[in-house]
Amino acid sequence: MKIREKRIPSAGPSITKKEIDKVTEAMEVGWGSKMNFYIDSFVDKFSEFIGKKYCLPTAHCTDAIHLSLLAKGINSGDEVIVPDLSWVASASPITYVQATPVFVDIDPISLCIDSKSIENAITKKTKAIMAVDLIGNMPDWDELQKIAEDNNLIVIEDAAEGLGATYKNKNAGTFGDISLFSFNATKLIMSGQGGMLCTDDEEIYIKAKLLSHQGIKKELGHEYFWSTEIGYNYNWTNIQAALALAQLERIEELIQYKEWLFRKYEQCLSEVEGITLNQNHSDVDPCFWMTIAIVDENLGLSKQELVKQFDNYNIDIRPMFYPISSMPPYQKYIKNSAENYNPNATSLSARGICLPSGNNLTDEEVEYICEAFKLILKKSNE
């Protein structure tokens, strides 16, 4: 097999003339009276697409998570249940407000938060559930919402990776009291960086909006530059919004591409033993934000070893997320013995890799990646 000279990246955006023209236009005219024009246009279209009444753009999705906790008054002494397998930003803002993240296990099929684990983790201190639509998949939202209702818990939906997915034909981002999205460079639609806080609760929206801009009320009748409370600089830019707006106008095309990419991987690797690609429960139509491959334990290949092996073929592979509780800053939050702690998250993380899932891969590149994968597995058995 001939090694490619040009490296295949792990992720990358699809940029067309639409994006270039929209951003150019924003740079030329998006100032003064139009300083918020593209932001407002994106917010209106995104709100309509998702189906949430209020949408607040933020500099990052992490900021949106932080604002959601602040808006609901979560602070020291409170506990927030969060899946152990996720990007660390699902948990880190919980510590910003001095609350305690409580890590629970995942469902082995969807890789999303497991309802039974949630029930077992609820205490008198529990205030919220942070549910993550991991890698474009979705948890059992009926069961999760019932648990929240029965225990009077806030539901925060981290839909950063779920845009375009549905559960029982209902959009990701519509299940939480607050839902959150990311538009960083790896996401389905992107603005380089950026996030969104969505809710149907006007009180949450007003509080989050105030805190997102240094505690300053920007409405007419309020003093300019006057902070009513300590806030943050979590604002977006017009230029970012112009890029995201162009991407949002292409969202159906981008969703279709992601499914094509997953099906292409599925087709090329269908006869290879020892690999399991993304799975989902029947109620979910995932958006296939990322194609994940889990290798069987009996192959004896860790995700770190697989990353090194793919590097030999000039392919950039990312390992599956690490269990957050395994990282030094979060080990102090483990309540019980670390032995056999969240076994599904631990086992699947150790054997999982993220195949290149950019929005710009070609048929030839996917076939090359799959051929390299087959050779790596073959060599491991020799």
Structure description:
By secondary structure, this protein is of the alpha/beta class. 36% of the residues lie in helices and 14% in strands. The protein contains twelve helices and 14 strands. It has a seven-stranded mixed beta sheet with strand order 1-9-8-5-4-2-3, with helices on both faces. A four-stranded antiparallel beta sheet has the order 10-12-14-13. A hairpin with a 2-residue loop joins strand 6 (166-167) and strand 7 (170-171). It is globular, with a radius of gyration of 21 Å. The mean pLDDT is 95.
Question: What is the percentage of strand-forming residues?
Answer: 5-15%
The best one-word shape is globular
Task: Please tell me how large the radius of gyration is.
Answer: 21 Å
In round numbers, the mean pLDDT is 95
Q: N-to-C SSE series?
A: HHEHEHEHEHEEEEEHHHEEEHEHEH
Structural class label: alpha/beta
Tally the helices.
12
What are the segments in which pLDDT stays under 50 over at least 5 consecutive residues?
none
Number of strands: 14
Strand order of the largest sheet: 1-9-8-5-4-2-3
Separation, N- and C-terminal Cα atoms: 17 Å
Helix coverage percent: 25-40%
Largest sheet: 7 strands, mixed
Topology:
Blueprint: H1 17-29, H2 37-50, E1 54-58, H3 61-71, E2 79-83, H4 92-96, E3 100-104, H5 115-121, E4 126-132, H6 141-150, E5 154-158, E6 166-167, E7 170-171, E8 178-182, E9 195-199, H7 202-212, H8 238-248, H9 251-269, E10 275-277, E11 284-285, E12 292-295, H10 303-311, E13 318-319, H11 343-350, E14 352-354, H12 363-380
Parallel strand pairs: 2-3, 2-4, 4-5, 5-8
Antiparallel strand pairs: 1-9, 6-7, 6-11, 8-9, 10-12, 12-14, 13-14
